[in-house]
Amino acid sequence: MTTNIVEIDNLSFGYKGKLLHKGINMVFPRGKVVAIMGGSGSGKTTLLRLIGGQIKPSEGEVRVDGKVVHEQDRHGIYKLRRKMGMLFQHGALFTDLSVFENVAFPIREHTDLPESMIKDLVLMKLNAVGLRGAHALMPAELSGGMARRVALARAVALDPDIIMYDEPFAGLDPISMGVICDLIRSLNDALGATSIIVTHDVEETFSFADYVYFVANGEVAAEGTPQDLLQSELPFVHQFVHAEKDGPVPFHYAAADYRSELSL
Amino acid sequence: MDRTTIDLWVGIFVALGVSALLGLAIKVGNLRSNSLGETYTVTAAFDNVGGLKPRAPIKSAGVVVGRVDDISFDTKNFEAVVTLKIDQRYPFPKDTFANIYTAGLLGEQYLGLEAGGDEESLKNGDRIQQTQDAVVLEKMISQFLYSKASETEPEKAQAPAPATKPSDSKSTELGDAPF
Amino acid sequence: MIKSNLLICLIRTLQSIGRRTIDRLWRLGAGARLFLLTIIYSGESFRRFHLTIREIYSTGVMSLLIVVVSAFFVGMVLALQGYYTLQKYGSSEAIGVLVALSLLRELGPVVTALLFAGRAGTAITAEIGLMKATEQLSAMEMMAVSPIARVVAPRFWAGVISMPLLALLFSMVGILGGYIVAVPLIGVDEGAFWSQMQANVDIREDIINGVIKSIVFGVACTMIALFEGFDAPPTAEGVSRATTRTVVTSSLAVLGLDFVLTSFMLAV
């Protein structure tokens, strides 16, 4: 048993000749909450897909529990994925199933438990996210924050070793954000799992993450504990943490000279 | 929706579909008359079978007693050999007469059997000796026209007109058409 | 100058033809791949047959009303038109044969398939397209559940099972509609209506061939709908265009396949 449940080693990924990631190295120790931060479009979500084996890296490798993900066949990848739970950006609840059936879905697919036990398990998971009373509702009847909590309950339904969060705070009100923050930390500690969070919300993430990676221009720009990063003098981290408009990440998209384009 | 309700509806749907198939087979396709019981096979040779096709009905006194099984060409006698499958329940005398008829003026052709007076019955593999060919409409019409012509021509002109000559020769060429 | 413009125009046209051809071929290949995967994963989905039953409900049962109503009107119109022509030749009793044969051999399978493409095919495309756009299919994959086994295969088999049942019902109800127009309204002899029909409809050549046609149409329509949904870009515009394409492609496929199948069946 390795100390790092997920290791990303010299990983490059790109398509159509354009590299999105250029030699990324990251480690995710067991039991920790690790955040991957970066601006929009910096390929954070793609990293989660690479860990889940939905896409193959151009170079380098991702190891989950010591196994190289892209070398697994379908059966092997599915075996690895059973150790993972993933919360998608907008929840990705199955719209044709009720809240209860959504949470029961992975249990029904992967186990042959009797109905009474499935019911107990689902209600326990829903209780953990505070939505036991909503088990009969359909996803369309839920608010954004509630949908995300149901999706979280579904992600942890099989007690995974790794829980991945794709933008868990996007589009939530402050109260829901706080609720999700607490849930991420408490579920991680209760299940003894490892959490990987992809986000760009500095304040919330720094309040509970153990370790943070900053991704910019396809590379790891900075890494460290939240305390270290707050004190960091690196211009990019400074800009990001303090939400400055201009800096190493320019306000303007790369363009030709302004004056010549306006033919002045 | 509840799973049991869905099951019920799907059950109704499948039952409706299957009963439509059965209904069509019995009411429209007439499953019963198509399936003959035990049959015996006899053959019959014709100079011309016209439009007779395999699976055409074999009727006697208007009742379907069997079906045409196969039609082949005999290269020795240059005849058409028709294989008949007749229901075991209907024995026919040895000197039975086989005709090819047309249902209506333009309808389908079928095989008619007219029983003779022989003591012995046809057995499996026998050959029906007396046959009459299919009526070919073109022949019938041309014969009719020529016979009309040969009736009216002498009345109009007393002297034998040269036009009647070829018509006479042609009508003999046609041979013994059925009327 | 004009010459070189023409040349450029010609090259552009050829390029666009080439691009379209490659695109079509690519889609054909991707569709065939999805079809193969669906067959491979079918065993997995048959273990949980209630998923397929659920889909039979939403494709077959939900199409029942439109199929039955259309069939009734088609049958009635056939009888009216048929009578109008047949009575000129004094053979209005043949109206039963006319109605039954046209429904069993052609109209039943073909019109049902066209209605199915509009009613159930679009629903399948839109549903799968939206599932993809809202990451539901991705979520399924991340839960180590194959979307082809869980989503595609049950819908495929539901379509293949529903289509011949719907086509048979179409023919049945159509003949009933024809009967109502021909016998009580026009006054064709009832006995002649049925007996002529029975004498001229062959179970294997007419009824069974019609069923075979509708099974093939079921495979084609459902597969096209599934592929378009799977292939749709995950945007509102992408899904709506995929839905339109489902109807257009399925209709053309049904009519083309109908010609091929009919010529095969008549040749045998």
Description of the molecule:
The complex is a heterotrimer of chains A (264), B (179) and C (268). With 264 residues, chain A is an alpha/beta fold. Helices cover 36% and strands 24% of the residues of chain A. In chain A, a hairpin with a 2-residue loop joins β4 (59-64) and β5 (67-68). Chain B has four helices and eight strands; from the N terminus they run ααββββββββαα. In chain B, β2 and β3 (63-74) form a beta hairpin. Chain B is of the alpha/beta class. The radius of gyration of chain B is 25 Å and the shape is elongated. Chain C is mostly helical. Chain C has one domain (1-267). The longest helix of chain C has 45 residues, at 2-46. Chains in contact: A-C, B-C. The interface between B and C is medium-sized, with 26 and 30 residues.
What are the main properties of this structure?
heterotrimer; A: 264 residues; alpha/beta; Rossmann fold; 6-stranded mixed sheet; 4-stranded antiparallel sheet; 10 strands; 24% strand; B: 179 residues; 4 helices; 34% helix
Q: Which CATH first-tier class of chain A would you pick? A: Alpha Beta
CA-based shape of chain A: globular
Weakly predicted, low-confidence segments of chain B: 163-179
Strand content of chain A: 15-25%
**SSE pattern of chain A:** EEEHEEHEHHHEHEHEEHHH
Q: How many strands in all of chain A?
A: 10
Layout of helices and strands:
The complex is a heterotrimer of chains A (264), B (179) and C (268).
Chain A: E1 4-15, E2 18-29, E3 33-37, H1 44-52, E4 59-64, E5 67-68, H2 74-81, E6 84-87, H3 99-110, H4 115-128, H5 144-155, E7 162-166, H6 174-191, E8 194-199, H7 202-208, E9 211-216, E10 219-224, H8 226-230, H9 235-241, H10 258-261
Parallel strand pairs in A: 3-8, 3-9, 6-7, 7-8
Antiparallel strand pairs in A: 1-2, 1-4, 4-5, 9-10
Chain B: H1 3-28, H2 31-34, E1 39-46, E2 57-60, E3 63-74, E4 79-87, E5 97-102, E6 109-114, E7 127-128, E8 130-132, H3 137-156, H4 164-174
Parallel strand pairs in B: 1-7, 2-6, 5-8
Antiparallel strand pairs in B: 1-4, 2-3, 3-4, 5-6
Helix pairs in contact in B: 3-4
Chain C: H1 2-46, H2 49-86, H3 95-133, H4 136-142, H5 147-186, H6 190-200, H7 203-231, H8 236-267
Helix pairs in contact in C: 1-5, 2-3, 2-5, 3-5, 3-6, 3-7, 3-8, 5-7, 7-8
